[in-house]
Write a structure and sequence with these properties.
The chain has 13 helices and 18 strands. The chain is α+β, with helices and mostly antiparallel strands and 399 residues long. Strands 1, 4, 5, 6, 7, 12, 13, 14, 15 and 16 form a ten-stranded mixed sheet that branches. The longest helix is centred in the first third of the chain and has 25 residues.
Length: 399
């Protein structure tokens, strides 16, 4: 599956700083990670630090799937609002999931500091706004639910938003959000794990696996094999190729990045923005004074049809931006399309689809893939060791 189109911003910025070989012999390891994006990198970091022997493979260049197309808004809010999630999954699961997301942002910062990654991580506020009167009751219900659940949120009126340069009716301001360069962090994590002994192979496509005497044999396209005790799939939306259960609806999404702005507005230095529209729009600044905006989601049919819509979506997003932030002169410098997915409850999937097979998945679907991947780190060892963990129940398959 082609996960993105055109040259996205992050790889161009870093211009392929490092590359890895493809597999050229049969190998054996304790754990095989399939997928070398931000999710695979985080899971590798956890396992390597636990002393595990790990091999990582990816069918394309390292970090050049969905990670390269990510806009990397880090929020504890998920695609399903808290008050709706309570109805879907119950109060405990819903509130814990939001709290897990909040903790994940701070956990991520600790990891970044530990490996000394220059991935431009910055804490921000999150502004969740509505532009239509019909959405105000929804936003008020969400505010009430978050307040009652102990989240630090404030209510902003129209005049508060005008001070931020935003044309909208009202908003919920959350104190905990962040932005970063996901491509740089993933590369730095993988390099860290390599120094700790992990073997990495790119352009190595695993076409099939089978069990043999309590081991898993992974077959690469070039006929070499990797024998492992466990396989961890961090393959994101491509997991639809290996999982029979229908767990995700694939979507096409579109992103534009502005030219460098001589004076990035203070509001974009302090906050990220997203709205109550369905599908929602989202906005963030970068350290080099650009603004990135995404949205315009469509049902995914195939990559050619997705990419054909890009010129039309550029103009759609630009017009939306001009309505929301009329005082900012947004000139498009980059644009790209990507594929992502939505689950029925907005939550990730962790663990083993088949309890009798040592194949584990960490699938952070939706707009919170990075924070979900950090959460997935906390339960991956329990999944491998066959132990119970609350997250393996919350985010189980066949739920």
């Amino acid at each position: 599956m082609k996960l993105r189109s055109t040259e996205t911003f992050w790889p161009l910025k870093h211009a392929m700083e490092i590359s890895y070989p493809s597999i050229d012999s049969d190998l054996e390891t304790e754990i095989l990670i399939i997928g070398a994006g931000i999710t695979g990198a985080l899971i590798a970091y956890k396992l390597i630090n636990e002393g595990k022997k790990v091999i990582m493979v990816d069918r394309r260049d390292i970090c050049n799937g969905s990670t390269a197309a990510s806009t990397a808004l880090l929020q504890y809010e998920i695609d399903v609002s808290l008050h709706e999630l309570v109805k879907m999954r119950g109060l405990e699961c819903a509130v814990d999931s939001y709290r897990n997301g909040k903790k994940a942002i701070f956990d991520l910062r600790t990891i970044i500091d530990t490996i000394k990654s220059d991935c431009q991580f910055e804490f921000k506020k999150s502004i969740y706004f509505c532009s239509l009167k019909k959405d105000l009751p929804f936003l008020r219900a969400e505010f009430k639910c978050r307040k009652e659940s102990g989240f630090d949120v404030s209510w902003l009126e129209k005049w508060d938003l005008e001070k931020l340069g935003l044309n909208a009716l009202a908003a919920i301001e959350s104190k905990t959000a962040a932005v970063m360069d996901p491509y740089k962090l993933a590369q730095d994590l993988i390099r860290y794990c390599e120094k700790k002994g992990m073997q990495i192979f790119d352009r190595t496509n695993i076409t099939s696996t089978h069990n043999q005497k309590e081991k898993l044999i992974a077959h690469a396209e070039n006929r070499h094999t990797i024998t492992a005790d466990h396989i961890v799939y961090c393959s994101g939306y491509e997991s639809t190729e290996t999982i029979t259960e229908k767990i995700v609806d694939l979507k096409s999404t579109y992103v534009i990045a502005s030219e460098n702005l001589p004076d990035l507005p203070k509001s974009f230095k302090k906050a990220v923005f997203w709205d109550t529209s369905s599908p929602y729009l989202y906005f963030r600044g970068t350290q080099d004074n650009r603004i990135i905006m995404g949205g315009g989601d469509e049902e995914f049919k195939d990559s050619k049809k997705r990419d054909k819509l890009l010129p039309k979506k550029e103009q759609f997003l630009l017009k939306k931006f001009q309505r929301k932030f009329p005082n900012i002169d947004f000139k498009i410098d980059y644009s790209w399309a990507g594929t992502f997915g939505e689950t029925k409850d907005g939550l990730p999937y962790f663990g083993k689809p088949n309890p009798n097979k040592n194949e584990h998945y960490v699938l952070g679907f939706g707009g919170n893939g990075i924070t979900f991947s950090v959460i997935g780190m906390n339960s991956i060892l329990c999944s491998i060791e066959g132990k119970k963990h609350k997250d393996l129940d919350y985010y189980r398959f066949h739920r």
